[in-house]
Known about the structure:
The protein has helices spanning 20-26, 35-39, 48-53, 69-84, 92-106, 139-147, 173-194, 201-204, and strands at residues 30-33, 57-60, 123-126, 152-157, 160-164, 167-168. The chain folds into 3 domains: 1-115, Metal-dependent hydrolases (TIM Barrel, Alpha-Beta Barrel), CATH 3.20.20.140; 121-170, Urease, subunit C, domain 1 (Roll), CATH 2.30.40; 173-204. It has 212 residues and is of the alpha+beta class.
Amino acid sequence: MAHAIYPDSHSWITWSTRDDIRLIAEARASLAHCPTPFVRYGAILESFGDYRDAGINIGIGTDTTPHNMLEEMRWACLLGKVAGRNLDAVMTSDVFNAATIGGARALGRSDIGRLAPGAKADLVLIDLDDLSMQPTRDPLRVLLFHAADRAVRDVYVDGELVVQDGETLNLDHRGALAKLREGQIRSEAAVPDLHWSGRGAEEISPLSLSRG
């Protein structure tokens, strides 16, 4: 299930029932939780802890740019605590498990999301000597709440080194940036023809600071 932010127990929902989370658990469905796209519009998943306590498998997704899993994990943890009004509503270990084995379990796979014989060699190596990782009493907490991707040193995908010393090896950044800019220009130019109101992009989504 993608997002599942609004079960009938959500504070914004006024239905008389409170059965959705139980029904999801009975159906043995998994939840793909992507906090960033919705918090930008003031909406949050209020029930991470309720889903967890019901035995529902939770995975973490990155349904928007930037595709930063560590940031998504941090948002999931912080927003879960705020929504649950409880420090223990979502633990750091809950979010870590959701981002690793939870996502793998949702896909029905045992060869990803874990370090084990026969699993894919998907590895993220963290520089514990990075200043942002200090003091390193609890590496996972420090990584999520302080360092984030700044401390990522190397990344392997199925055994292939794709990030080394913080630099991406298999992506033409300048070429990708040029294509992105071209795509943005085309997209914005087409907005009046595609939007029902005929308004342009800057009318529909005004800039934070005016051009003047």
